């Protein structure tokens, strides 16, 4: 049974188990028979230090791979560069972005990419629509700062997204973003399978459930509780962290929340030019939308990332931020409780 009780402790959850501008090498390597499709939340480019526009090359490979979706279960994912989400692209406003999309000859489908950061027809979708074995290119100028989603837009669009073809592009403002100690990249999606979410073996996609918006899995970075265990987020007391959070969808809005924390700054709707909203508990993020949140860590412990539509936790939508460091009794003090394993 893969689901855990809704009120499982953060400690129990913790025990469960490339950059965008580089060449096709690491992410696009020939996948194993069962691929690890989970992109670690730490796999994102560093902040941009230059202050002049540049030409940024983005190489995407549309790979269809069998990956582990949960313990004892696999799924045929459609991906950008063999991971979910696709690589985080990081550019500066004013940059010229040159996109090359390669659809390998062994693909079973046409693929393309639509960048929400693009000003131009289809966000690049028509320009990059590629049959198996084809390579397509286009370029665009990054005009407006923000955190934006990109996704495959080949028909049926919802099917391509549900099977894993989404990621995020960050367009930094000219002056950059306020410095933080750690940054993380997390994208939520939902997966529709004919089988129940606790089934074993190779699961198959369900177009019927997709059209009915009846998801079997809700995932952060591609798989059931993917950002726990070895891939949990790590930070220290006293640090300020930033999470770039998006929703690939294709259908469901997320109520993003970190249990036990309050967001100091929320760049609502992914806008980096609007003043951030202060002191926020939960952020609503639409499919095809994004947000950026900052918060300082005051107390050690395990903090659970959730979509606060909490039944989705049972279907895989949870991660862990593990914070180490000295206790801080001025802010949080509690006696040992024998019932602590029965709550979150």
Automatic annotation (TrEMBL):
The Enzyme Commission number assigned here is: 1.7.2.1
Every Plastocyanin-like domain range? 70-175
Q: Name one GO molecular function term.
A: copper ion binding
* Catalytic reaction list: nitric oxide + Fe(III)-[cytochrome c] + H2O = Fe(II)-[cytochrome c] + nitrite + 2 H(+)
Alphabetical keyword list:
Copper, Metal-binding, Oxidoreductase, Repeat, Signal
InterPro entries per UniProt: Cu-oxidase-like_N (IPR011707), Cu-oxidase_fam (IPR045087), Cupredoxin (IPR008972), NO2-reductase_Cu (IPR001287)
Q: Which residues bind Cu cation?
A: 111, 116, 151-152, 160, 165, 308
Pfam families referenced in this protein's UniProt entry, alphabetically: Cu-oxidase_3 (PF07732)
CC cofactor = Cu(2+); Cu(+)
Q: Which enzyme type, at the first EC level?
A: oxidoreductase
| Secretion signal span | 1-25
Provide the cofactor note recorded for this chain's UniProt entry.
Answer: Binds 1 Cu(+) ion.
What is the similarity comment for this entry? Belongs to the multicopper oxidase family.
Subunit text: Homotrimer.
Kindly provide the name given to this protein in its UniProt entry.
Copper-containing nitrite reductase
């Amino acid at each position: 049974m893969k689901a855990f009780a809704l009120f499982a402790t953060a400690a129990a959850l913790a025990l469960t188990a490339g950059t965008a501008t580089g060449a096709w090498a690491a992410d696009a390597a020939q996948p194993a028979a069962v691929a690890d499709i989970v992109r670690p939340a730490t796999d994102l480019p560093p902040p941009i230090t230059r202050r002049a526009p540049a030409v940024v090359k983005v190489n995407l490979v549309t790979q269809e791979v069998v990956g582990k979706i949960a313990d004892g279960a696999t799924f045929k994912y459609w991906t950008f560069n063999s991971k979910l989400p696709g690589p985080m692209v990081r550019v500066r406003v004013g940059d010229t972005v040159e996109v090359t999309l390669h659809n390998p000859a062994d693909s079973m489908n046409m693929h393309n990419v639509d960048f929400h950061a693009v000003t131009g027809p289809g966000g690049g979708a028509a320009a990059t629509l590629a049959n198996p074995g084809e390579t397509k290119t286009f370029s665009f100028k990054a005009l407006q700062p923000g955190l934006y989603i990109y996704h495959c837009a080949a028909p049926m669009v919802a099917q391509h997204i549900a099977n894993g073809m989404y990621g995020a592009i960050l367009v930094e403002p000219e002056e950059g973003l306020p410095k933080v100690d750690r940054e993380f990249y997390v994208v939520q999606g939902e997966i529709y399978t004919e089988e129940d979410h606790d089934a074993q073996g190779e699961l198959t996609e369900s177009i019927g459930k997709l059209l009915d918006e009846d998801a079997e899995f809700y995932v952060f970075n591609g798989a059931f509780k993917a950002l726990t265990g070895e891939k949990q987020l790590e930070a220290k007391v006293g640090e300020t962290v930033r999470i770039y959070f998006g929703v690939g969808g294709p259908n469901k809005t997320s109520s993003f929340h970190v249990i036990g924390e309050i967001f100091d700054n929320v760049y609502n709707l992914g806008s980096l030019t609007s003043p951030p909203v202060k002191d926020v508990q939960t952020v609503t993020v639409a499919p095809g939308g994004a947000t950026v949140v900052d918060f300082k860590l005051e107390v050690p412990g395990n903090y659970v990332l959730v979509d606060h539509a909490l039944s989705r936790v049972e279907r895989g939508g949870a991660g862990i931020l593990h914070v180490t460091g000295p206790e801080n009794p001025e802010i949080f003090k509690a006696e040992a409780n024998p019932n602590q394993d029965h709550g979150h």
